[in-house]
Amino acid sequence: MHRCIYCDNDLENGKSLISLLCFEDELCGNCRKQLKLIKHHFIIGKVKGLALYDYDSIFKSLLLQYKECYDEALQDVFLYHLNAYLSIKYHGYTMVFMPSSENKIKDRGFNHLEQIFKDVKLEKVNCLHKMVDADQKYLTKKEREKISLTIDKTIHNKKILLVDDMCTTGSTLKAAIKLFPDKKLKILVLAINVPKKGQVFRNILLKCKWW
Q1: Is the pLDDT of residue 14 over 60?
Q2: What is the dihedral of CA 118, 119, 122, 126, to 10 degrees?
Q3: pTM of the entire structure?
Q4: Within 10 A of 161 (CB to CB), how many other CB atoms are there?
Q5: Element (DSSP H or E) covering residue 19
Q6: Rounded to an integer, what distance in angstroms lies between the CA atom of residue 105 and that of residue 111?
Q7: Which are the contacts of 141, defined by CB distance < 8 A and separation ≥ 6?
Q8: Cβ burial 164-185 (10 Å sphere, 16+ → b, else e)
Q9: What would the mean pLDDT of 152-173 be, rounded to a whole number?
Q10: What is the per-residue pLDDT across 57-77, written as a single tens digit (0 to 9) for each?
């Protein structure tokens, strides 16, 4: 019997007949329903972005298990039946991944973003590097605002899709945007902190529009 890789219950729990017949998923139906797809649009500076999920407790738990516990089995959970959609939506774009700590990649043994987006049918380039190789989760907000990136190769495509796992302060994406002044840019992130109704949203860049 197949088990959910998150809750370890029967994989068929909570699944519809269509889901069982048409889609392979490593999460049971109940866990999949908790991982809510929101397709939330935002702007950093003048660059439009799309976030697929809210950065809530289940997403945070899954990402932590994948990145910090090196659980590669979770790599296909995040883009469940979204690969074709993203391939079409961003047709003609080159995906540029936001850099991770080099030390963390060595410890983990894989680049988590490359693994997640491996089945999206777009050109992919790993060309960005942090000036200081530090794990962002240990940086303060002020330290994140000082993040600087370098680029080690020329990308001839005019259309660039900047890709990250999550957007909290937006500092890394803002630094990346500065490196491509002559390109047509869009942003894709797996998750973002979505402000609740009536809540002032202070964690993202000040120039940020929601619709």
Answers
A1: yes
A2: 0
A3: 0.83
A4: 26
A5: helix 17-22
A6: 6
A7: 169
A8: bbbbbbbbbbbbbbebbeebeb
A9: 92
A10: 999 999 999 998 889 989 999
